Amino acid sequence: MTTIWKSGDHQTTKQATNNNSISGTTFSSCPRQQKLAMATITGAAILGLFLAMTACSKQSPKPALSGVSSPSTSVMPTPAATLVSAAVPPTPAKKTPRKRPANVTYNDANSGVSFLYPRKFALTSGDKAQPQLAAIGDVPMNFVEPGGVAVATVALPGGAYPGTDFESAFFNVNVNRSVSEQECAHFAFVDTRNADGEPVDAEKVKIGSAHMEMTSSFSASAVKQAETQYYHSYENGACYEYVLGLGTEGFATEGGIEHVNRDEVFAKLEKILATVKINPVEQERVAEPAVASIAGSK
């Protein structure tokens, strides 16, 4: 079968051919344009996203870092620091030295005698308690009957009064259970304070809270002097004797040594006498030898 094309059909065919040609060109170039378009769109989208993220980062507050603590937050010690602190021993508290009392208490359970005396003074008791003075040697007891026993003696330091004629001073306690209460009021030696040498009767005195009888004695050699004061009191069925003694040596001369103040020395000894207390004594202790004990005053 023969196809006959008319001119009009030829023109239509040519036009169609041209259209197909153009369409072919358009279709063949379409992937490249799409790629460019897509690249452009993608770049614009990335740029827009980047700008949006930048704007958001500027507007949004930065979150606090959990790993960084503020200055006010306490830092927990690490295990190493804990071990080091545990290994270091604590510093011991400084001990304050305890101040020793100025006075000491003397107690004798056998005689019942107790008294206070300065810590710096020297104490002897028992057989060694027999006092001495340079002018007369051993200072005798002044009971009217024998049987006296020395209990204790407290002596002042030798250098207590430098630059004076002071030689020694003491406070002494004796006890005699062979003397009655009436006999305790008397002394074996008369008072020699009278310048005429006539005896002077004992006088009644009050020392602290105790009433006592008192007498004194004075003796001297060429350069040594001794003065003693005796006090008697009757308690616990016994006669208690307290002796205050002062010894001096040498004569005061111009530019040399001075006389010690006797009143001042005896005032110190009388302070000890004023603290004397007589405690009750058990009967079985009477026959026992004197045993003294020393304790710090409270």
Search tags:
alpha+beta, Jelly Rolls, 4-stranded antiparallel sheet, 13 strands, 27% helix, elongated, disordered N terminus
Radius of gyration equals 60 Å
Main-sheet strand order equals 3-6-7-11-10-9-8
Pattern of helices and strands: HHEEEEEEEHEEEEHEE
CATH C-level of the largest domain: Mainly Beta
Distance between the termini: 157 Å
CATH topology of the largest domain: Jelly Rolls
Helices, by number, come to 4
Bin the helical content: 25-40%
**Strand percentage, roughly?**
25-35%
Largest sheet: 7 strands, antiparallel
> Total domains, how many?
2
Q: What's the architecture of the largest domain in CATH terms?
A: Sandwich
Give an account of the 3D structure:
This protein folds into two domains: 9-51; 103-296, Jelly Rolls. It starts with 6 loop residues before the first helix and ends with a strand. The model is unreliable at 1-29, 63-72 and 287-298 (pLDDT under 50). The longest helix is centred in the first third of the chain and has 53 residues, at 7-59. With 298 residues, it is of the alpha+beta class. The chain has helices spanning 7-59, 79-87, 181-184, 262-274, and strands spanning 103-108, 113-118, 122-125, 132-133, 137-138, 149-155, 166-176, 203-207, 210-220, 224-235, 238-249, 277-278, 292-296. A seven-stranded antiparallel sheet has the order 3-6-7-11-10-9-8, with helices on one face. It is built from four helices and 13 strands.
